[in-house]
Amino acid sequence: MKDRCGVVGVQLEDGDAALPTYYALYALQHRGQEGAGIVSHDGFQQHEHKGLGLVSEVFSEDDVDLLAGDSAIGHLRYPTSGDITELSCHPYTVNSKRGSIALGHNGTLVNTDEIRREYEDEGHTFSTDSDTEVMVHELVANLLDYPLIQSIERTMTRVRGAYSVTLMHDDKVVGVRDPLGIRPLCIGELDDGYVIASESVAIDVLGGELVRDVEPGEVVVLDEDGEGFESHRLFDERPAHCFFEYVYFSRPDSEIDGRLVYDVRRELGRLLYQRHGVDTDIVSPVPDSGRAFATGYAEAADDVEYAEGLMKNRYVGRTFIMPTQEARETAVRLKLNTVKSNIEGKSVTLIDDSIVRGTTSTQLIQLLKENGAEEVHMRIGSPPIVSPCYLGIDMPTRDELMASDRSVDDIEDVIGADSLEYLSVEDISDGLDMPVDHMCTGCVTDSYPVDVDGESYAREGERGEAGAD
Ligand code: AMP
């Protein structure tokens, strides 16, 4: 089981940390909707509550009240593969000879099958098929022989992949970001404590201040009195930040590694116009994912009117998997409808962040044309997605990816667009103001910054250096 998720850790000077953790999870709900959990520690013991569903479904007021203690961590789950069961909800908890551990993980590890087999050969048992459970096993095994930071360092040396983690060792709250900084993680200061979270929106919701991002390869330990934190930079490697966090996954109002996500998307929209501008009556976003891109596009194109050709029904969440094509089409119409006066008899530039399977763009172009749009020109704020993500974003196998074996011209035909253009990897690098070799571009270049079995490894021959504290 591999997850794309959201994590939180809170240490207060005094008072219950579960409530701010709960609010922070609300702010990060977009990172996972299948399950949620909070584990707190009151100085003597852990308290936990987790379950399947949205934060609002998993927690009642009483559930949060019962989570005593001024330390807490929280997690949101969206499995990219594997079963969805209550057992597999994070944070994982273990009681060991060296104290209690609770751990929540965002990302995916790529070598846990072999580590798991070694443990199983030694007689260890696992209760789920999760990569995170293997990480917890590894950490607990290290804690038998080493102090906490050294145990984390040894665990980080052994596991490979993407991980932004919040963990509690007894009542100590710790944040860990993998050496390549693939997934985001940041630190915030509250009036009465500190918070570590996947995205800065979780700090905003608590009225706190973003202090900084956790650096790639850094471990941050929050002071038990809630007055600061200790930093241990354990690895110093060239980063490989996931560009897709900026393009699609993170909230636009989050600031990640020094960049406001909304501004990045708007800049990419401007680049879309500069590289592939087309003379149409209106430019319209696919709501909500294309909105910031379309805003930038319209700013750059002073002769194209920004108008919303599509509206989203905000009360439709994820619809259940519908077995027939007819039912799937109804599902799209449940979610999206056209604003007829904006599109009737008009040529439309439609902007979205990405094409994965191609379902969304195919159906929306059809919907716009059925409702009177004369032409639909599709512009995409990322490069074609040609290969799967192994590092925590839900992108399927090559067979399911629209661009894995098709040219842009072929895709244009399949989705029924009058024209189709994408941004290039270099455009993404310009828009993010980040060198290409500081990003993970595996899904668009077919070459990964982490050694994944059977895939091309972009960093063959390079070695990360372990740094001193
Ligand atoms: P698709 O319909 O499969 O081509 O997916 C593209 C649409 O889904 C776009 O509107 C994206 O904003 C959105 N999207 C992109 N990546 C993902 C993802 N990993 N999970 C869910 N939705 C996504």
Keywords:
28% strand, alpha+beta, 29% helix, single chain, 2 domains, 469 residues, seven-stranded antiparallel β-sheet, Rossmann fold, disordered C terminus, six-stranded antiparallel β-sheet, Glutamine Phosphoribosylpyrophosphate, subunit 1, domain 1, globular, binds adenosine monophosphate
List the helices and strands and how they pair.
Layout: E1 2-12, H1 18-27, E2 35-41, E3 46-52, H2 55-58, H3 61-65, E4 71-81, E5 92-96, E6 99-106, H4 112-121, H5 131-143, H6 148-158, E7 164-169, E8 172-177, E9 186-190, E10 193-197, H7 201-204, E11 209-213, E12 218-222, E13 229-233, E14 235-236, E15 241-242, H8 243-249, E16 255-256, E17 259-260, H9 261-276, E18 282-285, H10 291-300, E19 305-306, E20 310-312, H11 325-335, E21 336-338, H12 340-343, E22 347-352, H13 359-370, E23 375-380, H14 408-415, E24 419-422, H15 425-432, E25 439-440, H16 442-445, E26 447-448, E27 456-457, E28 465-466
Parallel strand pairs: 15-25, 18-19, 18-22, 22-23, 23-24, 26-27
Antiparallel strand pairs: 1-4, 1-10, 2-3, 2-4, 5-6, 6-7, 7-8, 8-12, 9-10, 9-11, 12-13, 14-28, 16-17, 20-21
Helix pairs in contact: 4-5, 5-6, 9-10, 9-15
Bound molecules: adenosine monophosphate.
How would you describe the overall organization of this protein?
The chain has two domains: 6-240, Glutamine Phosphoribosylpyrophosphate, subunit 1, domain 1 (4-Layer Sandwich), CATH 3.60.20; 263-434, 3-Layer(aba) Sandwich (Rossmann fold), CATH 3.40.50.2020. 29% of the residues lie in helices and 28% in strands. It is built from 16 helices and 28 strands. The strands form eight sheets. A seven-stranded antiparallel sheet has the order 3-2-4-1-10-9-11. Strands 5-6-7-8-12-13 form a six-stranded antiparallel sheet, covered by helices on one side. Strand 18, helix 10 and strand 19 form a beta-alpha-beta unit. It starts with a strand and ends with a strand. Adenosine monophosphate binds at residues 248, 286, 289, 352-361, 393-395.
